[in-house]
Amino acid sequence: MVDTYQNYVDGEWRDSETGETFEVTNPADQSDVVGAFQRSSSADAAGAIEAAAAVEDEWAETPATARGTFLRETAKRMDDRAEELTETLVREEGKTRTEAAGEVQRAVDIFYYYAERAKDYAGERQEPSTTDQNLYYVREPMGVAGLIVPWNYPIAIPSWKMAPALATGNTLVVKPSQDAPNVLRKVFECLDAAAEETGVPDGVVNFVAGGGEEVGGEILDHDAVDTVSFTGSRQVGEMIYEQATDSHKRVQTELGSKNPTVVSASADVEEAADVVAAGAFGVTGQACTATERVVVHDSLYDDFVEALVERAESLDVGPGLDDPDMGPHVSESELESTLEYVEIGQDEGATLEYGGERLEGDDYDDGFFVSPTIFTDVESDMRIMQEEVFGPFVGVTSYSDFDEAVEIVNDVEFGLAAGIVTQDHSEANRFVDEADFGVVKVNEATTGLELHVPFGGMNASSSETYREQGEEGMDFFTITKTVYDNY
Ligand code: NAD
């Protein structure tokens, strides 16, 4: 018997008016059905947006400390249920237990962080040019936030959008990904209980599951939505940006990438292989910050490839619930897409050095498992070095002088996260200056972020409008009002 789960709209759990649902299954085992979720219509989304709009003034006028209390009470409940949230995340998305526990903890910490930031984020008084004047500015909430999120960090990403939106006095509607909606639905159970305890009005937070065009499309078009924050693929994100700015909304999109790591002549080969393997194969390569291109100094190339292949060979791949080193792809279509790029790479003349196969056997046959993939003899203009492959997939090329390495690094349309492994301080500094990426890492995997500093991409990885996370994450959801008060 499959459990059916509802939307959360205007303070209550509701069925969609369509009467239809869709099922979510475990990517490690298709016979394990996670649940059925509402296949909502644009009318369902409109109902949620209107509920959020009806209380936007009341929530905006709620003192920031009270908004912070709501976030803190939500965080406590999430923390109390951390183990359950972790298991839910593993079952629907496929991450390993360790990876999922880290993501759940991150989401809890984000709610706590913005619970405290809420009261510090107000504005500033400046010295006026005349006497007897107060000159200051305040930040006001934008209104209703429409949040559209992907499946790959299905609790952390919505948390880093919802918490700053709420802290700054916005109401919101969030559309989860159809591949992994359950962990976010459980966050809404926590929000619901916290709202009841702290007297938060119905309609401040809303969760509507369903298709991109129906639910997402309504968020992009509805007049009552003031801001749209989207994380997802470049293809969908670019369309969303056009559609939502056409209807005069403030929009932020954070998209895919093709992230490089340079292994400098001064690097320790074993350390470099650890850094690259963590960035490329961690979370099954399904991170927007995953390493997909490695640019290695000639002098280390053969040793590095050998060390990276050793890392790939030693990875224990299996169902996330068993906590192996690497779990499955989230879905059949993501698995197919990775396998298609394996073929493309071979057709382009690159050498398949390791992996690139669907895994078979008792543990694997009901899931979407692939072996980690390493290509060598790649050229920067090949599709496998230009297009995002959302799996454990990496191409390794070489360079002879540092200018050439930087040129290869920047030879993509994307610009999210770039890394270098080096013991040379001046090379590291040049890399930080010259890499056209929104996140730059020295001697660390391209994946992994701190929650209290800004995050976002450059070029095709982002709308480049606002940053997420940290204090800057609140800017997107507010507008400044300047006051000249003569007394
Ligand atoms: P996706 O673009 O397919 O979907 C993202 C969301 O958009 C989903 O909720 C989907 O239902 C919705 N959507 C789809 N069509 C829509 C439409 N026409 N109108 C409105 N909404 C629509 O992305 P995905 O496969 O869920 O996620 C993987 C992608 O996300 C990768 O490209 C990855 O790099 C990117 N990503 C980026 C970041 C970042 O911060 N830069 C973080 C995580 C993931």
From TrEMBL:
<dbReference type="InterPro" id="IPR015590">
    <property type="entry name" value="Aldehyde_DH_dom"/>
</dbReference>
<comment type="similarity">
    <text>Belongs to the aldehyde dehydrogenase family.</text>
</comment>
<dbReference type="InterPro" id="IPR016162">
    <property type="entry name" value="Ald_DH_N"/>
</dbReference>
<dbReference type="Pfam" id="PF00171">
    <property type="entry name" value="Aldedh"/>
</dbReference>
<comment type="subunit">
    <text>Homotetramer.</text>
</comment>
<protein>
    <submittedName>
        <fullName>Aldehyde dehydrogenase (NAD+)</fullName>
    </submittedName>
</protein>
<feature type="domain" description="Aldehyde dehydrogenase">
    <location>
        <begin position="13"/>
        <end position="483"/>
    </location>
</feature>
<dbReference type="GO" id="GO:0016620">
    <property type="term" value="F:oxidoreductase activity, acting on the aldehyde or oxo group of donors, NAD or NADP as acceptor"/>
</dbReference>
<dbReference type="InterPro" id="IPR016161">
    <property type="entry name" value="Ald_DH/histidinol_DH"/>
</dbReference>
<keyword id="KW-0560">Oxidoreductase</keyword>
<dbReference type="InterPro" id="IPR016163">
    <property type="entry name" value="Ald_DH_C"/>
</dbReference>
